[in-house]
């Protein structure tokens, strides 16, 4: 995702432009088909991160290839500046905008990650980040790995939807509302709402291991991608500084539990996360200096959440080892 600044005092996220879906039931022009699409994500972006996590948990690596844009971009869009020749090795493009322009000549709207791109034509199909991971769970079932968890179980969908709605407005988007507020009042309202929601989540998670039910669901994925960025970025850069995540005992233990679960921490590149936020948001950080800290080795410390019970993958199994081509730098010894 690229944050679009609002013209008002309060930050408002611009709607995505490509609302198409890729479906298995023929309800859209884009059918589910292994090898047809490439997921373009970025390690820095929380919205993209959740699509990478769900793809990995469900074992969709062989069905949907992964392109990773680098952490830096400008008004032209995300760029593949970490790839050889600054080009995605499959799509052959330097800027993600090129895929949007192939889909819509003269395209002049937002270019965001995650984006699904049709490999054969190079056309961007959808950047509907709110729906994409739900469709990975429901539309791509034919290509799930054996033992894939059910991240969006039908019996819990109403509760999951309610949880992710509040998390989206107050936490996922809430940190941006703090960081990009252009008045003291707008900032303080966003700050109060963010920490009120985090306090409520702490209370909820004090007695249960996961947000909904006794297994990992879509709700956990969506909350976690913001928590993992909290201390490196949001606490200082976005002025979300009542407390660090590491000073909120329940949420800190919850976040470490998931970080140490295959499919979560093994998608995180803390260096790229910091490079993006501090290097791109020059209106907030004019110097472009990227902080050296914080120390992230504490993400591997014991969390004790097993005592609450729960089965992370339900009746399924953890995903296997990360493909070498998709591996991220490891922390700790």
TrEMBL record:
It holds the Pfam family GST_C_2. Residues 153-280 form the GST C-terminal domain. Signal peptide: none annotated. Residues 307-333 are annotated as: Disordered. CDD domains: GST_C_Omega_like. InterPro entries: Glutathione-S-Trfase_C-like (IPR010987), Glutathione-S-Trfase_C_sf (IPR036282), Glutathione_S-Trfase (IPR040079), GST_Omega-like_C (IPR047047), GST_Omega/GSH (IPR016639). Gene3D superfamilies: 1.20.1050.10, Glutaredoxin. This is Glutathione S-transferase C-terminal domain-containing protein. It comes from Pseudonocardia charpentierae.
